[in-house]
Amino acid sequence: MKEQASTEVDKASKANRPSQLLTNDENEQLFDLLGKRCQTLCTAVVQLYMTQSPAHASWMKKWTGALCFIKDNIRKSYFFRLYCLKGNQQVWEQEIYQGIEVTKPRPFLMVFEGKEGIVAFNFATDDEATAFMNTTTSTISNRNRRRDERIKRSSTRKEPPPARPPPVSSQKEDTTVTLRHKPTFSAPTIPNAAVQPQPYQPPQFHNHQRSAAKNKGKPRLRKEDIGMPSNFN
Fold it and tell me: pTM here?
């Protein structure tokens, strides 16, 4: 029994991708923080920057820690999660929402739009930045491909055959019908062209409707409006 339990632990440990900048003990400590049925597909040491509200015109460093690209089998989704090993806790999370666009404007930098503003990961090494970007883009691409395949399969499902018509009677029936009142049909009324339904504007994040409503009317912030993080000392 002990050998079997040890084998299961080894398999779980090998499934998680460690950071080469962390020691074996630090990686094991990190893996213990991931939670039940969670796996890190990529791990890196980063500084996390976010734009500062309300104007979102400047960057602010929030945390320095171990960043994991998490596959959460219980929640059936993917997440960016940042852990503080000194505090032995998770300090930040962002779900990989549908339609997320992740860019890499510098060899050491990843940028995307988060739920509270623009987020930037400043990686300790270019190699870990490249590995993390590759994992992110491949996972998003595979998820989109599976979604498109499901949509295609559902649209090509065969419809049930129509009901069989009743048998034709051999007896001749009187099909003459006398109308007591002649029906009148009026032409349909064309609605006023000036009154048209407004186009639907989908929220940026499917689980952040309150934030979208709160910021209604404010101009949309673009990543191009904000400079790259600097002074990372």
Answer: 0.64
